[in-house]
Specification:
- The chain is about 40% helix and about 20% strand.
- It is built from 20 helices and 21 strands.
- Strands 13, 14, 15, 16, 19, 20 and 21 form a seven-stranded mixed sheet that branches. A six-stranded mixed sheet has the order 4-10-9-8-11-12. Strands 2-1-3 form a three-stranded antiparallel sheet.
- Strand 17 and strand 18 form a beta hairpin.
- Helix 4 runs antiparallel to helix 9.
- The longest helix is centred in the C-terminal third of the chain and has 34 residues.
Length: about 650
């Protein structure tokens, strides 16, 4: 294989101006559309030596047979042309938006003679004013029901309105008090328009002055003994207060913004949009984005914002994002043009209420991403397809109905542990998870070898009877079809060595390298690349992530026990004081970061013991073997860990 593709254009042929480029295959199909401030500098990155490219970028380059470009006058023009071509050609290697549903909006058809309030999923009604999106359709109906008690405007269909105006007979919703338009015979077209304007103004601002005004009218009517009118004002006040109560207050009343949170991995990203108007969350929306080639978070945010607002969504003055796009100024100019009034500011939230709201939205996005990936492997038909694809990709004779995945975790070479998780028919079997304590190891490959050696030594136990003399022991159901290790070629080679030493030849083996999500087989120089959006890759990712989570959880438990033992060795620090310290600070990290005065303030500690604690814990390194992210302390696979024995239920 040459260092790059043979058809690479000469560097001097590519202009240094801003522009948009298209990668084409041999049939002329557009594979990818991108933009650049300097076309020559940007395209030269794609023509770097192929082994240095991201795996999926390399696949795109090798799939193409030519690249073309169009020079434009500015970064803003490049941004606009890029989006236009992405929508026109739908390139397979650009980001794919997978909205999990179409969200309902409240729309007021201001372009009509007598505007109507309605529930719709169509974001392109000419002249309409939109509010939302709402998470559920019943939420829109509830809001409309409450609002028309205060601002009685038209709710009937266009055909009913036209018939009522021609015949002079009120429309049916008007007869039962559900429509307040001119078709009800209660107001003129001009009076109705004024009510509509008040309706829209309140929905845009949630101005509490409206409620204060109604309360004043209610009191006046009561004083003048107009009790029916006072009761009507009371009902209107209650309706508006109910509308306000349904929207969580998160920021100042004057704040209007959209907040976009992302949770992403190599292949997909979950987006969570919070719409804040008048300081209140007026709607939320979530969807999933598939990534084909490697893109930065800033590039992803840029494409998400363009896709969202070019589809007709209401543009606020302020947009808060996870990471600002590289061409932030140009994007602000483009969105400002779409908004049509004033500038649009795009920025991140560093502190305060907006940062807290971003944290909440990010948590929702993380849960949505996890749910998306879980659902991909939960359906029976999907699982069957995934298992068949894994069988074909790895060249197995049978589908991997039982898969075991292994991961190692340690604390800078101490407290080395490993995990084994089991999936049968594509679903986790938590009762058969196992945990391994590794007394001593030189590196992760040696730890993998030790773990697999101990596991393979128990393969024959699966043929033993469940009942033993004087005891009942759990055993595995049957031999695995596939062993998966978390890692690339070195980890796979270590696992293969364990299989060879055990004389096992009928179990398939592979590894998944996290950075590029490629699948490595023993003795292969090149990885297996599963399609980005394939169910097979999602299933392998899920079992890998579960093994990682289980290993980290066990390693954290071991670390906690070790820290308690270290503290107990300090003279004068008995079990009750150790328990108080760990209970107060909640984690070793917080205890290490605490000052002497804070530690000494704990009951029974004092300055001398506080200094001893700080000295004992000083300089402890963080965990290795994966991201040490806080996870719930799951109870599956609980039991004792025996360094030389895997038969004890984990």
């Amino acid at each position: 294989m040459s260092n790059t593709v043979s058809w690479r254009p000469k560097a001097g042929e590519i202009p240094t101006d801003p522009g948009v480029y298209r990668w084409l295959d041999e049939r002329g199909r557009v594979l990818y559309v991108g933009k650049a401030k300097n076309l020559r500098a940007r395209l030269s990155n794609y023509f770097a030596p192929l082994p240095t490219l991201h795996e999926r970028t390399r696949r795109m380059v090798l799939s193409a047979s030519s690249v073309t470009w169009t020079v434009v006058g500015s970064d803003i023009e490049a941004l606009q042309l890029e989006y236009t071509w992405i929508k026109e050609f739908d390139p397979p290697f650009n980001v794919k938006f997978r909205d999990d549903k179409t969200y309902p909006f409240m729309a007021v058809t201001l372009g009509d003679e007598a505007p109507r309030v309605m529930v719709t999923r169509n974001p392109k009604i000419r002249g309409a004013k939109y509010f939302g999106p709402y998470p559920k359709i019943w939420a829109v109906h509830d809001t409309i029901d409450l609002m028309i008690k205060v601002f009685p405007i038209r709710t009937c269909s266009d055909s009913s309105y036209k018939k009522a105006m021609q015949t002079g007979k009120p429309c049916f919703p008007g007869q039962i008090g559900r429509c307040g338009g001119p078709c009800s015979g209660k107001v003129t077209i001009e009076e109705h328009r004024r009510i509509v304007d008040e309706f829209v103004r309140f929905m845009k601002s949630y101005d509490k002055k409206v409620i204060a005004g109604l309360q004043k009218e209610m009191k006046t009517a009561a004083i003048e003994q107009r009790y029916e009118e006072a009761a009507r004002y009371r009902d209107q006040v209650q309706a508006l207060e109910a509308v306000l109560d349904k929207s969580a207050v998160v920021l100042r009343d004057s704040v209007d913004l959209d907040l976009f949170a992302l949770a992403e991995d190599e292949l997909a990203a979950a987006v969570q949009l919070f719409t804040v108007r008048g300081g209140r969350i007026r709607g939320s929306r979530g969807w999933v984005v598939d990534k084909e080639i490697d893109v930065s978070t800033g590039e992803l945010v840029e494409q998400i914002l363009q896709d969202t607002y070019s589809a007709g969504a209401e543009l606020p003055r302020e947009i808060v994002v996870t990471a600002t796009p590289d061409d932030n100024d140009a994007l602000e100019s483009v969105l400002g043009g779409l908004r049509g009034r004033g500038k649009v500011q795009i920025h991140t939230a560093q502190r305060g209420d907006k940062a807290a709201l971003m944290q909440t939205a990010t948590l929702n996005a993380q849960q949505a991403l996890m749910l998306y990936k879980t659902r991909r492997s939960a359906d029976f038909a999907t699982r069957s397809t995934a298992l068949a694809d894994i069988q074909e990709a790895l060249g197995m004779s049978d589908a991997p109905l039982r898969m075991e995945c292994y991961d190692v975790s340690h604390l800078s070479g101490t407290n080395i542990v490993a995990s084994m998780v089991v999936f049968e028919d594509g679903l986790p079997r938590k009762d058969q998870y196992r945990r391994f304590s590794i007394p001593q190891s030189t590196d992760d490959t040696e730890s993998i070898y030790q773990t697999l050696s101990r596991r393979l030594a128990r393969l024959d136990d699966e043929l033993a009877p469940v009942e033993e003399v004087g005891e009942q022991r759990k055993r595995f159901a049957y031999r695995p079809n596939l062993l998966i290790v978390d890692g690339g070629q070195p980890q796979v080679a270590a696992a293969r060595r364990a299989l060879d030493d055990a004389g096992v030849t009928d179990i398939a083996l592979c590894g998944i390298a996290k950075r590029l999500e490629e699948i490595w087989l023993p003795d292969d120089d090149f990885p297996v690349i599963l399609p980005r959006n394939s169910d097979a890759l999602f299933l392998i990712q899920r079992i890998r992530d579960e093994a990682h989570r289980f290993a980290i959880t066990f390693q954290r438990q071991r670390r906690r026990r070790d820290i308690a033992s270290q503290l107990a060795e300090i003279p004068g620090l008995g079990p009750s004081r150790v328990a108080r310290l760990l209970k107060h600070f909640g984690s070793v990290k917080r205890l290490k970061e605490a000052g002497l005065d804070e530690i000494a303030s704990i009951k029974g500690i004092g300055p001398t013991l506080a200094a001893a604690v700080a000295d004992r814990l000083g300089g402890e390194p963080e965990a290795a073997g994966g991201d040490d992210v806080d996870q719930p302390d799951d109870r599956e696979g609980e039991g004792v860990d025996v360094p030389g024995d895997t038969s004890v239920p984990a």
